[in-house]
Amino acid sequence: MSARNLIRKNIAYLFVVAIIIFVLAATIYGGIWPPFSVVESESMEHGSSWEPGVINTGDIVLLKKVNDPLNNIVTYVDGRSIGFKTYGEYGDVILYNAPDGEIIIHRAMFYLTWDNGNPVVYGYHGQSWIKVTKEYVIIYNCSYNGRNLFVSLKGMENESGFITVGDHNLATSKEFLSQYDAYIAADQNIFGFPPVPPSKVVAVAYGQIPWLGLIKLNIMRLYGEWPYYNEVPKNAYTYLLSLIASIIIIPYASINIYKKIKKKVKV
Predict the structure, then answer these.
(1) Residues 178, 207 contacting (CB under 8 angstroms)
(2) 149-180 pLDDT tens trace
(3) Cβ–Cβ under 8 Å, residues 54 and 88
(4) Which residues does 226 contact at the CB level (< 8 Å), separation at least 6?
(5) 62-85, pLDDT tens digit by residue?
(6) Across-strand partners of 95?
(7) Residues with Cβ < 8 Å from 125, sequence gap 6 or more?
(8) Which residues share a beta bridge with 164?
(9) Which of 136, 259, 262, 267 has the largest count of CB atoms under 10 Å?
(10) What pLDDT, in 10s, does the model give residues 110-140?
(11) What letters, b where the CB count within 10 A reaches 16 and e where it falls short, cover 159-190?
(12) DSSP state for residue 45 in the 8-state scheme
């Protein structure tokens, strides 16, 4: 076997081994299989262009199983109180089983329960940026573009669970209530979902692998299984192609460097 082919073979082996180790480590740490999920739509984006540190269409997010969601998920209300952020906003982003069978990845805004017909918002203790009434909850300056969130509690009486919102959904919502100066964007209002009970929480998202999920999504598109193909943020494909090019170029560059070093040694 020539030196060039040997280097190629070794690089390929190392690449495969690195992937296997990564997947095993992510599975062990996350306690869930598969340990990651591809983001299919723009509901968690923070703008029209691909942005690091937030969840973009085509990104792969890593998952961690939560054995006790009620006590181990940090909601927006909790996170804002203690300064805890993930993906560019306060609180954890969760994956949950929706009533329509889909798995939704959105931010857990607060946990709602009831006491003698009165709503109880976990983590609320009179903060100035939140208003809780029997009919609604308003969180002020809630989105990345400064919008206020209005959550109607109508139809949720005596139902407990997480209220969830897509970051992008709130920032671009057209359902504005002028009397409250706030926007409707909670899944429980726009989709009619009930509050998410802890038993429906699949995992908490952490970290991300950018762009690579677009490969899977475009394969899905060939079979008509990805309706959100027009929601890919600007520059995402450019970054993906640059990454693929780098993966291809690096082995060849390594071979040429090896050959030059070998010639110098012989001389």
Answers:
(1) no
(2) 999 999 999 999 999 999 999 999 999 999 99
(3) yes
(4) 40, 217, 218, 220
(5) 999 999 999 999 999 999 999 999
(6) 105, 203
(7) none
(8) 108
(9) 136
(10) 999 999 999 999 999 999 999 999 999 999 9
(11) ebbbbbbbbbbbbbbeeeeeeeebbbbbbbbe
(12) -
- Burial pattern 112-139, b for ≥16 Cβ within 10 A else e, equals beeeeeebebebbeeeeebbbeeebbbb
Token pair belonging to 42: 């723009």
Residue 17 burial (CB < 10 Å; 0-12/13-18/19+)?
exposed
Nearest to 14 by CA among 189, 250, 199: 250
Query: CA-CA distance, 107 to 37, in Å (whole number)?
Result: 15
What strands, in cross-sheet order, belong to the sheet with 176-177?
A: 130-132, 136-139, 149-152, 182-184, 176-177
Which of these, 36, 37, 111, 67, lies nearest to 199 by C-alpha position?
67
Measured CA distances, 254 to 10, 17, 200, 250, 262 (Å): 11, 18, 48, 6, 12
Q: Whose CA is closest to 167, among 191, 193, 186? A: 186
Angle at 157 between CA 153 and CA 160, to 5 degrees: 90
